[in-house]
Specification:
This protein is mostly helical. The protein contains 9 helices and 3 strands, in the order H-H-H-H-H-H-E-E-E-H-H-H. It folds into 2 domains: 121 residues, Fe,Mn superoxide dismutase (SOD) domain (Helix Hairpins, Orthogonal Bundle), CATH 1.10.287.990; 105 residues, 3-Layer(bab) Sandwich (minor pseudopilin epsh fold). Bound molecules: fe (ii) ion.
């Protein structure tokens, strides 16, 4: 059974709280099936699934000031992206989970297909955005730490080969999507995914380590239609330390 993520971060909570939440997220992963199960698990109390209310998912603050990445993304972009777009996925997820709870209470599953789709879309969108903020850092860039570099070399041949594959995946994700570095437990290797929308083209069980949002809202105000420039510049803020920590947890 999937571990229920603890997502109750508010402004002022500690870095340890944030890390604990992200560790839980790594167990939840980014797969729609898992997120659908999340809604079911959330209400599966000992009193029975029909009466328990779903937990409210809350939007954590950005882990840095809005203008902290200004060399890469403006404060306006980050503010809109976090406060409007990411907040919208959180609301959508809460609404969908509440809809599922109501359906169970009424034993009325006529909307189950739509609700399950909504949980997959908004839930994956929420988790990926939470990872995205931490995938960048004003102290980012440079090279990955020794352990992560070793894993990237084992999985891709070299760090540079990983960078090229990741960049190609992100640049070519169809329409709106994500470039994702993930750890895949079955093969005990890292993989690069090019998610479409938020929840499509994922690999069930793969644990995301580092993600780059290539929806236009992530970059258009500065880069216009030049997604490739935005992706290439991602390496100047890439938070290798975060990715290394998540790899350690995933393994
Ligand atoms: Fe986004």
């Amino acid at each position: 059974m999937t571990t229920q993520p603890e997502q109750t971060l508010d402004r002022g909570e500690t870095e340890l709280d944030r890390r604990a939440a992200l560790k839980a997220l790594s167990a939840a992963m980014v797969v729609p099936a898992t997120l659908a199960a999340l809604g079911a698990n959330a209400t599966a109390s000992e009193e029975g699934a029909t009466r328990a209310a779903p937990p409210e998912i809350k939007l954590a603050p950005l882990p840095y000031a809005n203008d902290a990445l200004d060399g890469y993304l403006s404060a306006e972009i980050l503010e809109l992206h976090h406060d409007k777009h990411h907040a919208g996925y959180v609301k959508g997820l809460n609404d969908a989970l509440a809809g599922l709870a109501e359906a169970r209470t009424k034993s009325d599953f006529g909307r189950i297909k739509d609700l399950t789709r909504a949980v997959a879309f908004h839930g994956s969108g929420h988790i990926l955005h939470a990872l995205y903020w931490d995938s960048m850092s004003p102290k980012g860039g440079g090279e990955p730490g020794a352990e992560l570099a070793k894993e990237l070399e084992r999985s891709f041949g070299s760090v540079d080969a990983f960078r090229k594959q990741f960049a190609a995946a992100a640049k070519n994700a169809e329409a709106s999507g994500w470039g994702i570095l993930a750890y895949e437990p079955l093969t005990d290797r890292c993989v690069v995914l090019a998610a479409e929308s938020h929840q499509q083209m994922a690999v069930v069980g793969a644990i995301p380590l580092l993600v780059c949002d290539v929806w236009e809202h992530a970059y258009y105000l500065r880069y216009q239609n030049k997604r490739a420039d935005y992706v290439d510049a991602f390496w100047t803020v890439a938070n290798w330390e975060f990715a290394g920590r998540r790899l350690e947890t995933a393994r």
